[in-house]
Each structure stands twice: as structure tokens, then as C-alpha cells.
Amino acid sequence: xxxWIALLxxxxxxxxxxxxxxxxxxxxxASLVVAAIFAVRGLGPDRVPRPAxxxxxxxxxxxxxxxxxTETLSALGSSWLPALGxxxxxxxxxxxxxxxxxxxxDVDALTGALSMIAGGAQGLVAVSRELGxxxxxxxxxxxxxxxxxxxxxxxxxxxxxxxxxxxxxASRSGESPWYVDLLVVAGAIVVGIGVARLIRLPAPATLGxxxxxxxxxxxxxxDSVSAPTILLPIAFVVIxxxxxxxxxRDSVRAVGRVMPWAIGLIVVLGVxxxxxxxxxxxxxxxxxxxxxxxxxxxxxxxxLAVSAASGANVTFVAAVQVVRLVIMLFAAPFGAKMFLxxxxxxxxxxxxxxxxxx
Length: 358
Description:
InterPro entries: AbrB_dup, AbrB_fam. Keywords: Membrane, Transmembrane, Transmembrane helix. The chain crosses the membrane at residues 80-103, 143-166, 178-199, 220-241, 261-280, 292-316, 322-342. Pfam families: AbrB. It comes from Rhodococcoides kyotonense. The protein is mostly helical. The chain is built from 15 helices and no strands. It has helices at 2-20, 26-40, 50-65, 70-74, 80-101, 109-116, 121-131, 135-159, 178-198, 204-219, 231-244, 249-284, 288-295, 300-309, 314-357. Helix 5 crosses helix 6 and helix 5 (80-101) packs antiparallel against helix 12 (249-284). The longest helix is centred in the last third of the chain and has 44 residues, at 314-357. Residues 165-174 have low confidence and may be disordered.
């Protein structure tokens, strides 16, 4: 119990310090770094209990699912096909970058793909262990990608695409009471996980609540519902602890060896996504800046902030970003399941050939 108390206390202090500096996703970064230090020094708990990890995944999934409302999707209008095509192309480019990352001796193919998928960093880290990847490597590379994008995006938007200032962010009206929000989130998690397990979905703690919350949001029954503000940072802390407590001295050294290669691939991925943004601009008639912001691979809140500040079409940018986020979170578990099945089949075939030759 004392180890948990110490971990919580230090996490809160570091979280507050990072938040004061204006760091995006401060709760997640703080919990990951603190838990990793505790784990490497042998001061932390063994691991996050599985029910707590599943609950955190469910909260994050419902928060994302409730963003997929009809108003956001309608912003795509007649541009939905090019937008969907760009999202799928981003997935393909991300997976290709992941396989290149896996050329490094410290990274396997599945971990490489999960590390480089552009979208839903927190969700991918949350499910990586369940899918068979190395969640430590996935966490570091994903957050490195988000960090690099957040740092460089305002500069690129201003210098390359001529972003100005003066936009405004629209506030959401008609919000429901917090206890209604809490009941909806709890219901979506319980029902979603139950149904996902029943039909044997991969990563049921993520895909089940995600599908349930999207269905509820699109049904129009819960237009004013959103995940309670306090829940998401708590989920981020648990997810960060889950990844951080798995670190060892050897894994820290392995991550250090991979970093230069990962940074290079993240830069290439950012450039390719920017080119996809130019293609989206050409096919839909949106500005080059809006195309870039709609396709930039990471940091949804930062993307929307830059969009609003520069007077870009925030609703369109948000729609493309949310669609891509949902595609990534659905594609990763199913892709991982197929990859593992193929690898197991090849392994069995190799064993049979070995026996026949012997």
C-alpha cells in the first residue's frame, strides 16, 4: 500500500509541474515517467490490477466515442470519400513506418506497427500488451510522436502555411448533469465490454465501449452527454502507470537504442501526412492549412487549438481527425489479431516441415 501511496504522491507533484508548464497530456506523461523511474529503481508496485486497466481503457474509449456525433460527421459533407481515403492512407503509411521501425533488433513487427500508428496514442498504449506488443516501447514512441507533432505543428502552420490568429473556439451548450454523464459512461463500459466478450472482439475493454458510445451518440439520445472532466485524467494516470511499471533497466536501454531510428521515422511520417493533407486540399477545395491540420499525425487537442486560433474550419478539421482516430483504434486490434494468427500458422508450418525433414 505504501508503494502505491508514494507513486500517487510523486505522480501528482510531477503532473502539477508539467501542467503548470502547459504540457499537453500532462497526467499521462507524468504517470508514465514516474512509474518507469519507480519500476527501474525497484520502488514501485508490481503492476496495475487488470480491472483498473480495463476501466481506464473503457473511460478513454467512451470519451473518444462520444466525439463522433452527427454534427461533426456532417461537416465532411460531400468530402467524406476523400477524407476517408486520406485516413486509410495514413493507416497504411503508419504501418509501413512501423515495419521499418521493426528492422531494429530491439523491436518486433507488431510492436513497431503499434508504435507508429498515427492516432489514438493513449488508446494504443492501453491495448498494446493485450494485443501482444511491448507496451513500453509503444508508449515511448507514441508519446514521442505526439510530443514532436505538438512542438512543431504551430511553427509549420505559421511558417509554411501562413496561419494567422483571431479564430474562436465554440463552446458546447446544453450539457447534462455530471451524474447523467457518469451513468452513461458506466453503462457504455459495462455493456460494451460484455457484448465485446460475447462476440469475441479483440481488445474488448476498448472496442466494446468505443462501439457502444458511438452507437449511443449517433442515435441522438444523448446529444448533451460527455465524459465527466475528472475521469479522463484519472484514466490517463492509470494507463501511464500500466506502461511505466513494466519498465526494467534492460528495456530502458533498448528504448534508448531505438530512439534515433524512431525520431527519423516520425519525421518522415509527418512529412507524408502533410503531403496527404495537400492531396485532401486539392480534392476537396479546403485551404492548404486546413488540409495540413486535418491530417497531421497527433495531438488532437493541439490541432483543434491551432485550427481555432488561425481561423481555420475547426469543424472539418475535427471531423477528419476524429474519423481517423476511430479507424486507427478499430484497425489496430483486428490487424494485430490477424498478424498473430498468421505468425502462429507460419510457426506451426515451420514445425511440421522441421519434423518431416527430421
